[in-house]
Amino acid sequence: MGKPRLPENSAPLIILLITVRISSALLNLIYDCDETYNYWEISHYLIYKNGYVTWEYSPKYALRSYFYLWTYIWPSFILSFIISNEVILFYLTRIAIACLGIFCELYFCIGISKCAGTSVARYCMAFMLMSSGMYFASTSFLPNTLSMHLTMITFAAWFCDHYRLAIFAAGISILVGWPYAAIVYIPIALSMLLSRRKQLYFILFSLVYGVMILVPLVLVDSYYYGKLVIAPLNAVLYNVFNTNAGPELYGIEGKAFYLINLLLNFNLVLVGCLFSLPMLILSKIFMTTRKHKLLESSHWMCIISLFLWLFVFSMQAHKEERFMYPIYPLICASAAHTIKLIEQFVVGAKQPYSSPVFKSIVFLCCVAFFGLSLARVFSLHLGFKSTFQVHSDLKEFDKDRDIQPILGSINSMDHDNSTINERFINVCYGKEWYRYPSSFWLPSSRRYRMRFIRSEFRGQLPKLYDGPQKANGLETRIVYDDFNDLNKEETSRYVDLERCHYLIDSSQNITADREPDYSKNTKDWQVLSSHNMLDLANSPAILRSFYLPFISYKKNSYFKYQLLRNTRLFIRNEKGSGASGVVM
Prior knowledge:
With 584 residues, this protein is an alpha+beta fold. It folds into 2 domains: 322 residues, no CATH class; 159 residues, no CATH class. 53% of the residues lie in helices and 10% in strands. The chain has 19 helices and 12 strands. The strands form 4 sheets. The chain has a 5-stranded mixed β-sheet. It has a 3-stranded antiparallel β-sheet with strand order 2-11-12, with no helix packed on it. The longest helix is centred in the first third of the chain and has 31 residues. It is globular, with a radius of gyration of 26 Å.
C-alpha cells in the first residue's frame, strides 16, 4: 500500500473536519451531568478554588484522577490570570479537546489508508465528519472521549506497524482516560502476544510505558488526595468487585439501549457496520488477492474489537451513552470497509453499469446519513440550548447597576429571630440540578455561587468546595463525613429557598410538593427570562430525535425553562434621589 498518507484530494475533507470539530467545541451542549459535576466543576475548583465535587473525589474513595483534568485545563489555568471571562476558558478547554481529536482522526485515516486503501480511508473520514455521535463525543470533557481519541491512535499505529506507539496510546487511554477501554484493545494485544516475534516486545514495552504513565499519574493524584492513590485501580475495584455498591445505583437500562442509541447517532452507517461480519465471511470465501487480505486484516481487527465491546457492555445493567464513545471511530471504519467489500463484489461481477449505479447508491446513502445526522444535531441543540441561554441572560442582568442584590445579614423568611450572613449572590437549582452547565457559566466566581434547594430527587448531590485552604493547603485532602458511595441523600447539600437570589427552574404542568411552579408565585419571584425546552416525555419519538423544519416545532411539546429573581433579595437604586427599595 506504500507510505502511510492521507487520501489524495482530501484537503476539502480536512478543512471540513476542522470546521465541524471547532463548531462542536463552540456550539455543543452538555447532555450528561457527569460531565458537569465530575469534570467541569472540579476543574473550576482547581482554577478558581471553588466548585462542586462528587463523592468519587473524596479521599475515602479516590476514584477520579486529577492528572486527567490537568492534561486539558493547564492552558486555561495559566490564562485565568489574564482573562477574567470564565466562559472563554470553558470554550478554550473545549477547543483543546477538539484539536486533539482532529489530530487523532487524521492519523486514524492515515492508518486505514495504509492498511485498507485510500478509498476506505476517505469513506471513514466522511462518516466521522458527518456523524452526529462523533459531533457530540469529540468535544465532551469526559475520559470516554480521551479513550475514543486514543483508540484511533492505537488502531492507526497498529495498522502502520508502529507497535510502540500503539502500546503507549493504549496505556494512556486505559490509565489516564478510562480503565475499561482496555476491552477494545484486547484483540490487538492478543495479536501481538500470539506472535513469537512480537510477544516479548509487547510485554517489555507494556511494562516500560505502564511505569512511565503511572509515575506522574500517581504523583499528581497522591498530592491532591494526600495519600498514595492509583485512581484507575480504585475505579475498577469499586465498579467490578464491590458487592455492597456499584454503578447499578445510578440507573439500569435494557439490553437494547445501546443498539437504539447507536442507531440514533449513526443511522445508516450503523447498518453498514452491522453488515461487516457477513461481508467479511463472504469475502473470505470468494476473494483471495493480497490487496484484499490487507483490507481484510484491518477490517477483522475493527469488527472483532467493536463486537467484543458491544457484547461486554450490553451485559452490564448500568448503561450510559458515553460508554460507547471508544468504538465510535470503529463503527465508521467498519462501515467504510463494508462499502469497499461490496464495491469489490460489484466490480468482480463485471455487469454493465454496475459500478456507476453502485456509486450513485452510495452517494445517496451518504446524503441520507448526513441529513439524518444533521437533523439529530439540530434536534438536541434547539431542544436544550436554553440551559446555556439562561446563564447568558444572567450575565446580562448582572450588568444592571440599577438593581442590587442584598448581601450581608439577611432576615429569614421562616424564622423571625434568625438572620443569615450571605457573602455571595446565590443562583439556585432544584429539580433542574442535572442541567447545570458548570460554574464557568456564572457571571463571576468571586461574587456568585450555585446552590441546591430541595426537590423530589433523593440521591446524593455534589458538595461545594469553597472554604479556606486546609489540610496542608488543599481542601481535596479532607475526608468529609457527608459523602457516601450508596447514592444516599445528604441533606447538608441544600440551602433554604430564602437564600436564593436567583432560581433556574422549569414551568411544567406536573408539579410536586417540593417542585412547585415558582414562576406562579409572583409575589416572591420575578421571571427575568424564559426559553422553550423540549419535553421528551410528551413529544413523538421520531420528531424529538430528529429535527424537521416547521413540523417538529408544531408536533413536539415544550415547557418553559426560566431564570427567576427573588424580589425580596434585591433593592432598586432610585436615580437622583439616592433612595432605594425592595424590588417588587
